[in-house]
Amino acid sequence: MGIETMPVRFHYFDLKMVPLASQRGKYTSSSLLKACITEINRARKDDHNAIVLDRNHKNSKELKRELFISTIAIKQPENKYKGTIHLIRDNKNPMLVDRETYKLAPMNEVKNGSMIAETTHFYIDFSKEIPLVCCEFNNDGPRISDIEYYFRQIGAKVLNLSYSCQAERRSSGDIKTFLKNLNDVINIKIKAKPSKLPYLTNKLNESFIARMQGLSNTIENAAIKVETSFRAPGLRKTKSIAGIAFVKRVLGKVTEEEEIIEALEDFSVIYDSNSGTQETFNLTGSLVEFTVDCPLTKGRTLESKQLFNLANVEFDDYINRTNQSVSS
């Protein structure tokens, strides 16, 4: 029997930190992030504890979303920081399933104050002015928005050095360029899983999305896809003000909160550009990503050393290709 593996997907993000006015000239994005890393490691070494932050602490109606980074250290000779962030699940335990009979049983082994934690791996390159993060996509665990929040809180609340930390997703289709080039909307396609629609309805605050949720509730389905056209064949061309406004509102909120992209299966727009050509913008299909097959341990967790080695090959290749395109 061969070694069991699991596909692991990664995305790229620029992580920008902004210093307080009193710290301008003293700190850059890179030095602020390194200061946060130093503090995280100091707490582990000197206080023998982790810095645990609850992302939902301001909302008593939400379940806790407690996060902590257990390890983050420079990896030589690759010259990259290798980290793991964890999401504590203390609301309820998952069930165990027998792989032969598929019978379920409670996970009684978790006791004596122990809790389950979902783990996300991430790596940071500091070769440029803005740190570049290569982050595992973990549907059940911490997201890049959690990493962004964690470093923002360390920089602002713990160190009192910065006031902003923003993760900007790398993609082949730039939202700002698209919106600048948008002249008219011809067609929009939106696809999402039913479980994601309440989140999208809340975050986007669009009646169109709310109606998708209502439609999905009428029938049991795996996903719902809606396509709307603003121009019928043979009719005189009339600019769709409503379509343009809708696209701009949705993408404006996407730039503020990266998690919205992760909740969408598809968001594509066929449009007329300012140059008179008909083009297509695909928000979800333009993400810069890669997938590696990582070996599993006997406990069916990802083999972290192997995962880094596999991901780092792709990471280095992406950095080299990006540097070449900039210099050419």
TrEMBL record:
Domain of life of the native organism: Bacteria
Entry protein name: Uncharacterized protein
